[in-house]
Specification:
Layout lengths: L13 E3 L3 E3 L2 E3 L3 E3 L7 H13 L5 H4 L13 H13 L22 H11 L1
Antiparallel strand pairs: 1-4, 2-3
Helix pairs in contact: 1-3
């Protein structure tokens, strides 16, 4: 049995006039995360953890912010590609554990749906 563990971390500044996406859900917020894609920090961190477990470069290597294809892209695409990389490597994603640190918006009411969204992408 070959067990690999990855750790992902992501942080974005907040900006007026942007939607706030987390775990594939647009949360009600006065500001949204800056970024080239939808800037879903949770999905980005999970993607980085998966890529790290595979010994691959981070999300920015595969989906650079200089590539117009990823402008406004849903982060679910990135997770789907990370899952495909695991499958190609003959692996299996068994568990995801994530920690969110944010003062607002309130996340707890949306956690169950975030889990569904992430699981569906993987």
């Amino acid at each position: 049995m070959n067990i690999r563990i990855g750790m992902g971390f992501d942080v974005h500044e907040l900006e007026e006039g942007r939607d706030f996406w987390m775990g594939g859900i647009k949360l009600p917020a006065s500001k949204g995360a800056t970024g080239h894609s939808d800037a879903d920090v949770l999905m980005h961190a999970v993607c980085d953890a998966i890529l790290g477990a595979l010994g691959k470069p981070d999300i920015g290597h595969f989906f650079p912010n200089t590539d117009p294809r990823w402008r406004g892209a849903p982060s679910r695409i990135f997770l789907e590609e990370a899952a495909r990389a695991v499958q190609i490597a003959g692996g299996e994603i068994v568990n995801i554990d994530s920690t969110l640190i944010a003062q607002q918006p309130k996340v707890y009411p949306h956690v169950a749906q975030m889990k569904v969204n992430i699981a569906a992408a993987l």
